[in-house]
Design brief:
It is built from 7 helices and 7 strands, in the order ααβααββββββααα. It is of the alpha+beta class. The strands form 2 sheets. Strands 1-2-3-4 form a 4-stranded antiparallel beta sheet, covered by helices on one side. Strand 5 and strand 6 form a beta hairpin. The longest helix is centred in the first third of the chain and has 26 residues. It is elongated.
């Protein structure tokens, strides 16, 4: 009996650290470019602050209120540039912004829409009333995330829930498959 408890406790500790031992923890996929995008947003905001402060200092107009204004402007730039963190697991996809986390159950998707415009957005809606928006480039850059979404969307389509948007997902999948095939051909010099 003591052996079973020790094994179960070790599995829980491994799960808490994100190691194996529990299938749910190992199956979560995250946008692999998110940390680099956050660093880029921080550097842009910091660069703006330093540049404006140096210009103000060189002109001899730097004061405490102006410094606070530049800091506020830089913070606003960071908020605008902060990337959403996209994660997916078996049957769900979540988008975490600065202040809010939204998720959809991919097996219960009812609509997938692609909105073109200044910034292309992929809008996912499920039968529970949940809705998320994300940049489709995140899925193109992270095939595992797209695979999770596609797997759930197929289940929703097979259940008769997903009636709108199958073509959009097929286009994204084909785009990734085409890019992967080109990469293989270029790597093996078979152009």
């Amino acid at each position: 009996m003591g052996h079973h408890r020790t094994t179960r406790d070790a599995a829980r500790r491994g799960t808490a650290r994100g190691e194996g031992g529990y299938a749910g923890a190992a199956e979560t996929v995250t946008d692999r470019n998110w940390a680099a995008d956050v660093r880029a947003a921080i550097l842009c905001a910091l660069g703006l602050f330093v540049l404006i402060t140096l210009i103000d200092l060189a002109n001899g107009t730097l004061s405490l209120p102006r410094l606070a204004l530049w800091a506020g402007l830089s913070a606003l730039l960071y908020v605008v540039l902060h990337p959403a963190r996209v994660t997916a697991g078996p049957g769900w996809l979540a988008v975490q912004g600065l202040g809010r986390r939204r998720h959809v159950c991919t097996g219960l998707l009812t609509a997938v829409r692609h909105n073109d415009g200044v910034a292309a957005r992929l809008v996912l809606c499920d039968s529970l009333g949940n809705r998320v928006e994300l940049d489709p480039q995140i899925l193109v850059a992270n095939p595992l995330l797209l695979h999770r979404l596609d797997r759930g969307a197929r289940a929703a389509r097979d259940a008769g829930l997903l009636n709108t948007g199958c073509a959009e997902l097929r286009r994204l999948t084909a785009r990734i498959d085409g890019a992967a095939a080109r990469g293989v051909f270029e790597a093996s010099d078979l152009r």
